[in-house]
């Protein structure tokens, strides 16, 4: 790797799935994995293509039960392009000798270059160079240029360019026993000179899907259609001359019935591909679009850390680009890169939107609007559960219903087990947090006072209605939930799922209630009256919110914040013993269940839970929250809490090392880099043992970007000012970035040893207030300031 390219040399089947995920190309509307175009899906290759928000529902037989699942659909494969010599079979890296194989992902240009040199059955060498892109300027287009060169011989070759509609959702091994055929009524045809098309639909959501491919070559060719059931193909027979390169350009258009301003996906796809410019023109426009994206998300971090961060930024932008702002789509936890988690939306936007807020606020607003469109469904879910307000689902897809599976497979034991993760109601607090963070960063009071306050009110109403007053405690309590930890979903020896008074859940619920009251109190009277009338708020309800926000119970034990009531009474785990026996114990829950035991019995967490509070809130804000709840959590108690859970966490999630690195940057700085480094390597080194091949971890990737942007700078967009409280790390002592703050585009931040420089670009906008420690300075557009950082030696 270097600053702007990512390269792989050689062909290694065991690494192919990982490389396909990391070499995915996309534009926010759709994305395609970096698979070899000549290879179909098998145990090595998986050429998946996914469109944002395109889901379908199937029913499977699981453990004697009918189970319904909604999946992000693997769309027809547009990649297929294969070559064979006159007397041979189709050349693939698994069937023929490879003399050379290289992949080069160009992050700046958004292209994937692949070179391969094959030896055919007669020992003749054929060089194949391919350049592909998923167009960032026109979100419905993709291109594949193939250059073929005969080395030391002359003769005919056959090249087949196809669209494959026989695909299934089979990219995740543990799902393969489930129903997977989402496409139906596949039809193919010819749309004019050099153009073939394929149309189909999803089985239950009835989304129409159409692709059209135009294939042209710069050499004389004998062309014919070669359609087979479920597959549209065009065959070219070309005479190669030794040393002369023949170029074949494949341009593909993709439309679905979810698109706006079209009558029919097939008509739109055929028309678009026929009108598309030549390869060079499209490549130029694509590179221009990418150059503009990089300018808006400028990040200057040196060495290998900077290279990894730019790869992460590249994949964030491919999943959530400005094109996403035109769609009804959420944040898929595994990007548009694979089928893990079924393409569902979780709470991962909590780690993604803070980065987007300061670069692409229009994308953040669209993602929050996705949540607002599903507010009614969340309110219905709360009513069905006997609650008030809005109960957002832990997993969601097309329409906002709860998509969390009720059974999950433990691959170690082969058993299907009950899944209670739908009790992670803290996802509602994540939605509220993102509303607030977006509005503070963007200054979008129009959104805050309309869609934003409606979501805040209903989420606050849910928490107030979920809290029960316990006279024995003299506090309000929230029972029957699952926290971010995910390992613990019940008390040992009980049949009732859920836990009581998860500290993260209760503290964030208190924050939601407080923040909603603040927004209501600060709104213009007419807008406040409209909100009260729309949501049916009454004064008694607001009084209850005041009481609950300051009266929620937060458990403690052994001088630390308890993860939940009773956590301190659980047994201690023999951590070293399990590490000696199993090595990697990230998925400790599966190990224990396979042994006939349960992680519910132990003080063992999958990922940060209590410590997530230190990720969301600055030390000052967190201290104020605990004081509001009647507790004094000073630096000493918080550090003790950090130490306690640090030794009891298996880091079974890629988000865990990110959160721990963030928190340790302020609590135990000398150890922070160990976790930050692991968060950076999570996907590129596939630290979760094969999971990256099923799709990248978008929250962790975006989170590492935000770690530099907000975590290390201590940047808060609060109270109409940019507030800084930098954390100096020797491993990352100098870096720069550009952010968009409210209407100021391209505010430059540069941190180096001992100082912070802020430059505000020239404009007619008002000055920006910069706060550092106890100082506030005002920087006018066109000016800059340099501030000396306080000494924060750990």
Which class best fits the helix and strand makeup?
alpha+beta
Distance between the termini: 33 Å
Q: How much strand?
A: 25-35%
The shape is globular
What number is the mean pLDDT?
A: 96
- Determine the fraction of residues in helical runs and give it as a percent range: 25-40%
Largest sheet: 9 strands, antiparallel
Strands, total number: 33
Which strand order does the major sheet show?
Answer: 1-8-9-10-11-18-15-14-13
Enumerate how many helices there are, as a single number: 20
Radius of gyration: 27 Å
Uncertain stretches = none
Describe it.
- With 794 residues, this protein is of the alpha+beta class.
- The chain has a 9-stranded antiparallel beta sheet with strand order 1-8-9-10-11-18-15-14-13, with helices on one face.
- The two termini are 33 Å apart.
Notable characteristics:
20 helices; alpha+beta
Please summarize what this structure is.
The protein has 794 residues and is an alpha+beta fold. Helix 8 (427-442) packs antiparallel against helix 9 (445-466), helix 9 crosses helix 10 (503-522) and helix 9 packs across helix 11.
SSE layout and pairings?
Elements: E1 5-9, H1 16-22, E2 25-26, E3 30-32, E4 49-51, E5 55-62, E6 65-72, E7 81-85, E8 97-106, E9 111-119, E10 125-134, E11 141-151, E12 155-164, E13 183-192, E14 195-202, E15 208-217, E16 222-225, E17 231-240, E18 245-256, H2 265-275, H3 279-296, E19 299-300, H4 303-319, H5 349-357, H6 361-373, H7 375-384, E20 407-410, E21 415-418, H8 427-442, H9 445-466, E22 468-470, E23 475-477, H10 503-522, H11 525-535, H12 539-551, E24 556-557, E25 560-561, H13 575-582, H14 588-594, H15 612-616, H16 619-628, H17 635-646, H18 654-667, H19 669-681, H20 698-711, E26 716-718, E27 721-724, E28 735-741, E29 744-752, E30 755-759, E31 768-772, E32 775-779, E33 784-788
Parallel strand pairs: 27-31
Antiparallel strand pairs: 1-8, 2-3, 3-4, 5-6, 7-12, 8-9, 9-10, 10-11, 11-18, 12-17, 13-14, 14-15, 15-18, 16-17, 19-28, 20-21, 22-23, 24-25, 26-27, 28-29, 29-30, 30-33, 31-32
Helix pairs in contact: 4-20, 5-8, 5-20, 6-8, 6-9, 8-9, 8-10, 9-10, 9-11, 10-12, 17-18, 18-19, 18-20
């Amino acid at each position: 790797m270097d600053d702007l390219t990512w390269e792989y040399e050689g062909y290694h089947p065991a690494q192919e799935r990982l490389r396909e995920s990391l070499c995915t190309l996309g534009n926010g509307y759709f994305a395609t994995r970096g698979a070899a175009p000549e290879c179909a899906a098998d145990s090595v290759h998986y050429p998946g293509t996914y469109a944002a928000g395109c889901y379908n529902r199937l029913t499977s037989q699981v453990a004697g039960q009918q189970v319904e699942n909604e999946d992000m659909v693997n769309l027809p494969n547009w990649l297929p392009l294969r070559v064979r010599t006159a007397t041979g079979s189709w050349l693939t890296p698994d069937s023929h000798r490879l003399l050379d194989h290289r992949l080069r992902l160009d992050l700046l240009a958004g292209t994937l270059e692949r070179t391969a040199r094959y030896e055919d059955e007669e020992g003749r060498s054929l060089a194949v160079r391919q350049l592909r892109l998923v167009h960032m300027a026109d979100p419905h287009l993709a291109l594949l240029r193939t250059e073929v060169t005969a080395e030391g011989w002359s003769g005919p070759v056959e090249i087949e360019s196809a669209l494959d509609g026989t695909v299934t959702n089979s990219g995740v091994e543990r799902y393969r026993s489930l129903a997977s055929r989402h496409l139906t009524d596949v039809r193919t045809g010819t749309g004019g000179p050099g153009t073939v098309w394929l149309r189909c639909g999803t089985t239950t959501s009835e989304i129409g899907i159409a692709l059209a491919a135009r294939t042209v070559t710069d050499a004389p060719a004998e062309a014919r259609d070669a359609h087979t059931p479920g597959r549209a193909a065009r065959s070219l027979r070309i005479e190669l001359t030794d040393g002369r390169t023949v170029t074949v350009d494949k341009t593909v258009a993709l439309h679905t019935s979810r698109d706006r301003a079209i009558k029919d996906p097939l008509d739109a796809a055929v028309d678009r591909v026929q009108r598309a410019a030549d390869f060079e023109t499209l490549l130029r426009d694509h590179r221009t679009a990418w150059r503009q994206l990089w300018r808006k998300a400028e990040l200057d971090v040196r060495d290998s850390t900077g290279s990894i961060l730019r790869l992460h930024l590249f994949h964030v932008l491919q999943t959530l680009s400005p094109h996403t702002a035109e769609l009804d789509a959420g944040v898929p936890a595994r990007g548009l890169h694979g089928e893990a988690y079924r393409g569902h939306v979780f709470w991962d936007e909590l780690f993604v939107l803070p980065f987007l807020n300061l670069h692409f606020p229009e994308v953040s607003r669209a993602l929050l609007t996705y949540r607002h469109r599903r507010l009614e469904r969340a309110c219905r879910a709360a009513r069905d559960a006997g609650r008030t307000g809005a109960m957002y689902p832990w997993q969601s897809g097309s329409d906002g219903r709860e998509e969390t599976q009720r059974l999950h497979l433990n691959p170690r034991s082969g058993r299907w087990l009950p899944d209670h993760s739908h009790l992670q109601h803290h996802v509602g607090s994540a939605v509220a947090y993102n509303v607030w963070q977006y509005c503070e960063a963007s200054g979008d009071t129009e959104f805050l006072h309309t869609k934003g306050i409606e979501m805040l009110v209903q989420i606050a109403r849910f928490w107030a209605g979920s809290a029960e007053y316990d006279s024995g405690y003299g506090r309000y309590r929230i029972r029957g939930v699952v926290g971010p930890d995910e390992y613990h979903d019940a008390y040992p020896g009980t049949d009732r799922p859920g836990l009581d008074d998860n500290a993260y859940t209760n503290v964030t619920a208190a924050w939601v209630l407080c923040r909603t009251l603040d927004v209501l109190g600060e709104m213009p009277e007419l807008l406040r009256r409209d909100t009260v009338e729309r949501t049916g708020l009454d004064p008694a309800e607001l009084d209850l919110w005041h009481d609950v926000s300051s009266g929620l119970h937060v458990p403690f034990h052994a001088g630390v914040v308890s993860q939940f009531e009773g956590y301190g009474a659980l047994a201690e785990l023999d951590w070293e013993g399990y590490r000696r026996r199993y090595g990697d114990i990230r998925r400790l829950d599966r190990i224990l269940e396979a042994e006939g035991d349960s992680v519910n019995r132990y003080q063992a967490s999958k990922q940060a839970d209590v410590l997530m509070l230190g990720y969301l809130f600055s030390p000052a804000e967190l201290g104020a929250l605990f004081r509001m709840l009647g507790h004094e959590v000073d630096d000493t108690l918080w550090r003790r809490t950090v130490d306690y859970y640090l030794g009891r966490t298996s880091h079974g999630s890629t988000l865990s090392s990110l959160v721990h690195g963030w928190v340790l940057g302020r609590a135990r700085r000398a150890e922070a880099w160990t976790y930050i480094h692991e968060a950076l390597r999570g996907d590129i080194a596939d630290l979760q043992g094969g999971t990256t091949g099923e799709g990248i971890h978008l929250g962790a990737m975006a989170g590492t970007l935000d770690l530099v942007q907000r975590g290390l700078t201590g940047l808060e967009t609060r109270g109409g000012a940019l507030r800084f409280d930098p954390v100096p790390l020797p491993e990352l002592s100098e870096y720069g970035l550009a952010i968009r703050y409210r209407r100021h585009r391209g505010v430059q931040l540069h941190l180096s040893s001992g100082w912070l420089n802020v430059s505000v670009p020239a404009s007619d906008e008002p000055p920006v207030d910069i706060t550092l420690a106890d100082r506030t300075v005002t920087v006018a557009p066109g000016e800059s300031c340099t501030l000396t950082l306080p000494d924060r030696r750990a």
